[in-house]
Input
Amino acid sequence: MNFPARQKKLRQHLASARLDGLLVSHLPNIRYLCGFTGSAGSLLLDEAGSVFFTDVRYDTQAHEEVKGAKVVVAKKAVLQAVAEWLKKRQRRARGWRLGLEAEHFTLADKKRLSDLLPAAIRLKEAPALVEKDRMIKDADELERICAAVNLGATLFDQALKVLKPGVKESEVAAAMGYTAREQGAEEMSFPTIIASGARSALPHGRASQQPIQSGAFVVCDFGVILEGYCSDQTRTVWVGAATHDARQAYEAVLEAQLTAIKAVRPGATVGEVDEAARKVLRRRGLGRYFTHSTGHGVGLEIHESPRVARGQKELLEPGMVITIEPGVYFPGKWGVRIEDMVAVTANGCEVLTPTSKDFTAV
Amino acid sequence: MNFPARQKKLRQHLASARLDGLLVSHLPNIRYLCGFTGSAGSLLLDEAGSVFFTDVRYDTQAHEEVKGAKVVVAKKAVLQAVAEWLKKRQRRARGWRLGLEAEHFTLADKKRLSDLLPAAIRLKEAPALVEKDRMIKDADELERICAAVNLGATLFDQALKVLKPGVKESEVAAAMGYTAREQGAEEMSFPTIIASGARSALPHGRASQQPIQSGAFVVCDFGVILEGYCSDQTRTVWVGAATHDARQAYEAVLEAQLTAIKAVRPGATVGEVDEAARKVLRRRGLGRYFTHSTGHGVGLEIHESPRVARGQKELLEPGMVITIEPGVYFPGKWGVRIEDMVAVTANGCEVLTPTSKDFTAV
Output
C-alpha cells in the first residue's frame, strides 16, 4: 500500500478546501492513509508532514504499522495530545485553519478540542475528502478486494452444505463464520443475514434461532474482512418444491440485477444504474416491492461512497467497486435479493463475485 | 424491558438539562429506550410523547420492535423526516430547545438538521443523559447480562479444547465464534483476541494466522452479544512448561484483579478501584507494565460508562456492571490479563464470570 502517495494526494486537496491542515479521525480513513488498524487514534496532516496520535494501548502496534507519519503516544487523551502538538507548532500562525471531518467528528469532541486550542487556530468543517479519494481503488486495493470476495464466496458453498429444513438460521451463519475465520478472515464484514420463511421479507434479517422452513426463500447476505478489505454478497435459495410465484420473482430480480450490471460503466451516474434495476422491476409490476437502493461502494468499509441510489448524480469512474443488489420483499410472505460486487473498468465493469446466480432449490 | 419507564425517566431529565426535547441518535440508546435493534433511526422524545423515525428498510421491523413510541418511516432521509415532523408540531414554539446527543451527533448532521429546521427551533448540545441512566442496570438487564456472561464463559471451555502449540490463533477464535453462534449469540461483542507468543504483549492483539508457540502466554479476550447484551472476559493460559517468571507475573495480575474486585462497592469511586489494582502491581515492581485502565462498564455496548480508570470520580452504585481487567505486558516477550465482569450490589459486588482463574498451562 502506497501510504505516502495517498497522503500526498490528500495534501493537494487541502488548499482547494481552504484548509491548512486536516485532522483525520475516522478510523478507516486513518487506515487508508497510514496503515494503522487499531481502534483509537487521529492523524494530523498538513504541509509540514503527518503525525499519528494514539493512546498507550497501541504504542507497540502503532510503531509497527504506521507508515508515512510520525507516531505520538498520548499520555492522556488523544485530542489533548493533538492540541498540545498544535499549540507548540502553530503558536505564531494566526488564523491557521484546521479541518475536522464533519461526517464523523462529534459536537462534543469539537468542543473539547476548541477548549484546548488557542484562538489563533480556527476549526473548520471539512468535507469527506478522504472518502472521495477512497472511492477509486488502486491496484493494491483491488487485489485485496478480490481476495476478500473470493474467500467470501466460499462461505456460500459452505452454507449450501448445511442449509436444509429444520436447521436453525444461526447454525448456517455459525458454519459460515467458522469457515471465514479458519481461512484467515479478520472478521465478518457485518452480522450474517440468514433470513428464512417470512423473515426473508426483512431486508436486514440477521440470522435468528428460527429453524429453516420449506415453502419460502432463504436470503443469505454475508461478507468477510480480509486484510482490512470487505466483501459483500447475497444469494437467495428456495427451500422445498419451488412454486411458480417464487420462480417468477427470482427471475425478475435476476433480470433487474443483470440489467443494472450492464449499466455500470465510466461516465454513467449511479442514479442511472439504480434506475436500470428499478425499471425492470416496475415493468414486472414489482417496483413497489423493491424498497431499498441498488447498491453502495465497498472497500475498507462495508458501506462507503458512492451510494447507488435513486437520483444520485455521482459519476462512475474506473477503479470504483460497488454492489449491485436489487431485491423484492413481500411482508409476511418472503423476499428475494441477489447481490454481486462489481469493479468499474475502462469500458464497463467486471463482476467480482464468482458464485452462480441460477435459481436454486434445496 | 420496561421501555415506557425508561422514557419517563429520561423525560424527567429534560427540564434540568433545559431542553424541550431530545433527539436520540445513538443506536444503543435507541434500543434501550424503545427496543429497536436495527441500524438506522432516530428517537425524538419530548413532553408530548416519543416518535421513532427510520427508513424503508426497517418498516416491518420497526413496527414489530418499537415500544412506547409512534413509528414514522421516512420517505427520504431520517433527519428530513424528523425536521418535517418538528416543523409541523413546533411551528408556533419560539425558542423550542431540541437537544442533540453531543457525544454522537456529527458536525455534518447538525448542519443538515439546522438547515432543515425553522429558526424558532434551537439546537442544543445535550450531555450523555441516556448513557447516565444506562449505567444502572435494571433487573431485566441484569438477567440478560448474566445469560450473556454464562454463554460467553462456555467459549473458553471450547478454546481450551483446541488451544495447543501449532494451532493457529484464528482457529481458536473460529471455534469460539462457532460455539457462540450455535448457542444463539447474535454476534461476538468484539473481534476475539487470541494473542500468543510475543503478540500476547499487545493488549489488543486480535487473533491472527500465527501458530501458537510454547514458552509464552496466550491472552484470550472475548465476548458475545445475547439478546442485545454484551459479555466480556479474559483468561490467559501458559503454553508448555511454566517458568518461574510466568507464574510470578500471573500471580501478581491475579492478586491485583482480586484486590480491585474487593474494592468494588457502592460509594467507592471507580478511580479507587483502578488504584487498588495499580497499587498491587506497583508493589510487585510491575506498575509500569500495566499500561491500560482497570475496566469499563458493559451492557448494550461492550464499552460504556463508567470508565474504571486513574483519577475517575464516578461513584459506584448498585446495578452497575463493570469489568475488572488488570494486565501486564512485556513488549517482545509476553503479556497477561485477567478479566471478569462484576455487578455492584447493595454491599459490595458479585463476580458474574464463572470461569476459574487458577494458573493454567496447556
Q: What stands out?
A: Chain A has a mean pLDDT of 95. The CA atoms of residues 198 and 333 of chain A lie 5 Å apart. DSSP finds ten helices and 19 strands in chain A.
